[in-house]
Recover the amino acids of this structure.
């Protein structure tokens, strides 16, 4: 099975390679998922650099969130069903044709959610929600966020608006201001040319 692999920690462009690895077999409580799409999160890149909260044993397959199809069940697993499309976050080794995940962590998906949305459905929205909860900013108060046109930033802007929290949304380029405006997200400022919408 094809996998993205790191043999050493470092710059992703220098240490990522494609390799063949054995097809993993699920243990009790696990399933094997055939990956359809897996996002590249900042924490994935930090893991590859060796600069995250933990370092996986090398060689390692990166990736922590994905959407895929359940293709094998470990002992004792009855749900989700074989062939079920699922999303999972907090997994490991998702940048491979197949990966293992704990069955209890899988979220079944309806057909109406496209893979591009589903593959980042858990980690980024949860990060945005936890950020708002941790900051305890109330209605009418202000906050500033950078990289506002990323998945966490867009989600945070929507959640903050629903709570009456005002947000200044910083982006790195003028096109990011327009991207946010198209989604109905205002108070966007480009740190490149100081465009405001």
């Amino acid at each position: 099975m094809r996998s993205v692999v790191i043999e050493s920690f470092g710059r992703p462009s220098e240490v990522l390679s494609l390799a063949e690895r054995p097809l993993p077999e699920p243990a009790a409580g696990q399933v094997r998922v055939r990956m359809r799409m897996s996002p590249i999160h900042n924490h994935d890149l930090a893991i590859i650099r060796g600069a995250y909260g933990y370092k996986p044993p090398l060689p390692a397959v990166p990736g922590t969130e994905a959407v895929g199809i359940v293709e094998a069940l470990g002992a004792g697993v009855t749900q989700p069903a074989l062939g079920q499309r699922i999303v999972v976050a907090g997994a490991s080794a998702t940048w491979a044709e197949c990966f293992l995940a704990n069955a209890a962590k899988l979220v079944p998906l309806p057909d109406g959610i496209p893979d591009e949305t589903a593959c980042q459905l858990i980690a980024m929205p949860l990060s945005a929600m936890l950020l708002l909860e941790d900051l305890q900013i109330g209605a009418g108060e202000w906050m500033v966020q950078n990289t506002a046109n990323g998945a966490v930033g867009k989600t945070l802007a929507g959640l903050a608006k629903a709570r009456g929290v005002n947000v200044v949304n910083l982006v790195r380029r003028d096109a990011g201001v327009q991207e946010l405006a198209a989604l109905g997200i205002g108070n966007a400022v480009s740190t490149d040319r100081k465009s405001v919408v």
